[in-house]
Amino acid sequence: MRYGREFLALAVLSAVTSVASEASAGSRPSPAVGGLVRAWTNGNVSIETVVEFGNNPQPVTIVENSRINIARVIEIGTGTVDATIVQNGTRNYVDVIQVGSTTNALIGQSGVSNIADITQVGNSTNALLLQVGDMNTGAVRQFGRFNWLAIFQFGR
Predict the structure, then answer these.
(1) What is the mean pLDDT of the chain?
(2) What is the pLDDT of residue 93?
(3) 56 Cβ neighbours under 8 A, 6+ residues apart
(4) What residues have CB less than 8 Å from 20, skipping those under 6 apart?
(5) pLDDT, tens digit, 9 for 90 and up, residues 97-112
(6) How many structural domains compose the chain?
(7) Residue 28 CB neighbours (<10 A)
(8) Which structural domain, as residue segments, surrounds residue 61?
(9) What DSSP string describes the chain?
(10) 76 burial class (0-12, 13-18, 19+ CB within 10 angstroms)?
């Protein structure tokens, strides 16, 4: 049974990574939409902050592979807002705030300590959280008419 759970975690992480790699091209907010992107990385720490607002916000994709990964995303739009975050490191932190008619958050974390915080406001809110590690913490708040949430947490 243990190998079955590990296989499922590997399959979901593979799907998350493939979606992130396909969407990574052109996934930053354009100046016409309104947004801010701040990224700082050295060999041990990676910090990325994306703030995006407007009528048609672009999908946000963040992939971090440092020892310590910190990702913060704030998206406010009138249409669909999407965020995909993949982190592979010892310590992984994610904070996502989304407001829009449809909100989608896809987060995959693999490391010793994984922390994710998701807040979504919209007519339809969707979140998928996958954490593989020794200490996994996830908090999700969804305020909408149609809410969908899936959380997968596995020990290493």
Answers:
(1) 84
(2) 98
(3) 33, 77, 78, 79
(4) 61, 63, 84, 85, 86, 106, 108
(5) 999 999 999 999 999 9
(6) 1
(7) 17
(8) 2-154
(9) -HHHHHHHHHHHHHHHHHHHHHH-TT-SPPTTT-EEEEEEE-SSEEEEEEEEEESSPPPEEEEE-SSEEEEEEEEEESSEEEEEEEEESSEEEEEEEEESSEEEEEEEEESSEEEEEEEEESSEEEEEEEEESSEEEEEEEEESSEEEEEEEEE--
(10) middle
Can you read off the two tokens belonging to residue 64?
A: 């971090």
Q: How far apart are CA 87 and CA 104, in angstroms?
A: 17
Could you tell me the two tokens for 51? Answer: 């703030």
> Comparing 54-58, 67-71, 130-134, which segment has the lowest mean pLDDT?
54-58
Amino acid found at 92: N
